[in-house]
TrEMBL record:
<protein>
    <submittedName>
        <fullName>Uncharacterized protein</fullName>
    </submittedName>
</protein>
<dbReference type="GO" id="GO:0005576">
    <property type="term" value="C:extracellular region"/>
</dbReference>
<dbReference type="GO" id="GO:0016020">
    <property type="term" value="C:membrane"/>
</dbReference>
<dbReference type="Pfam" id="PF03699">
    <property type="entry name" value="UPF0182"/>
</dbReference>
<keyword id="KW-1133">Transmembrane helix</keyword>
<keyword id="KW-0472">Membrane</keyword>
<feature type="transmembrane region" description="Helical">
    <location>
        <begin position="50"/>
        <end position="72"/>
    </location>
</feature>
<feature type="transmembrane region" description="Helical">
    <location>
        <begin position="23"/>
        <end position="43"/>
    </location>
</feature>
<keyword id="KW-0812">Transmembrane</keyword>
<dbReference type="InterPro" id="IPR005372">
    <property type="entry name" value="UPF0182"/>
</dbReference>
<keyword id="KW-1003">Cell membrane</keyword>
Length: 247
């Protein structure tokens, strides 16, 4: 019963405790009776009684072990499931907390100052210099506007990563220039184009998380086709990307 998945939680539920468990005891009693019938049958040399007992056990297993718990679940538990299952949900939460030692967690006040001190700024210079200002949604639109370059390329989403740039650990935002063959004109949507000609994306756009140009655009550290910038992209081809799923 501890591995039961009948209820809303993993483990014994209302139907298990009030139907399945009694059914197990009833079936145990039926088995003992069948064993007694077998012994008596051997002594009296009667072969019919064992067959009757086996048939009775099968019927009891179907009705008591299968149908009865299902009926209790359907007509007693489901119409008022929260009330019926509440104790077992509480048991599940309680012992899950104990298993992960969450019941022994101590809460301690943490006084936080609204404004960082000069010492805080000095001690966390790398973190402060990498605070993200760009939102991924307008940045993706900007990448698509200035860096998609070809009609059939698309920046699917923008991710955040970290690299060593000029000896400093920098947080950057980047997006792969993926193939978007559905953007081709209808007359170009041929098997040859989709399977042989336009087969992969190419390169990426990469920019710091908190820098802009005088025009309000991202400062691109990697851009264009072929890729140029602060990083050497040895293999810019993207055959298996988030949108490259034709094969």
């Amino acid at each position: 019963l501890v591995f039961s998945t009948r209820g809303v939680i993993f483990g014994a539920s209302y139907a298990d405790m009030h139907a399945k468990l009694p059914a197990q005891w009833i079936l145990l009693a039926v088995v003992l009776i069948c064993m007694g019938v077998f012994v008596v049958s051997v002594l009296r040399r009667n072969l019919r009684w064992p067959l009757y007992s086996i048939g009775g056990w099968i019927v009891a297993a179907i009705i008591v072990g299968g149908i009865f718990p299902a009926v209790v679940q359907r007509f007693q538990v489901e119409p008022n499931e929260l009330a019926r299952e509440r104790p077992y949900i509480e048991y599940n939460i309680q012992f899950t907390r104990e298993a992960f030692a969450l019941d022994r967690v101590e809460e301690q006040p943490f006084p936080a100052e609204e404004a960082p001190s000069l010492q805080d700024v000095a001690q966390n210079e790398v973190t402060i210099n990498n605070i993200r200002l760009w939102d991924s949604r307008p940045l993706k639109d900007t990448y698509n506007h200035v860096q998609s370059i070809r009609l059939y390329y698309d920046f699917h989403d923008v991710d955040t990563d970290r690299y060593i740039i000029d000896g400093e650990y920098r947080q950057v935002m980047l997006s792969a220039r993926e193939l978007s063959a559905e953007r081709l004109p209808v007359q170009a949507q041929t098997w040859v184009n989709r399977k042989l000609q336009f087969t992969h994306g190419y390169g990426l756009a990469l920019s710091p998380v908190n820098e802009v140009t005088a025009e309000g655009l991202p400062v691109l550290l990697v851009k264009d086709i072929p890729p140029v910038g602060d990083f050497n992209v040895e293999r810019p081809e993207i055959y298996f990307g988030e949108k490259t799923n034709d094969y």
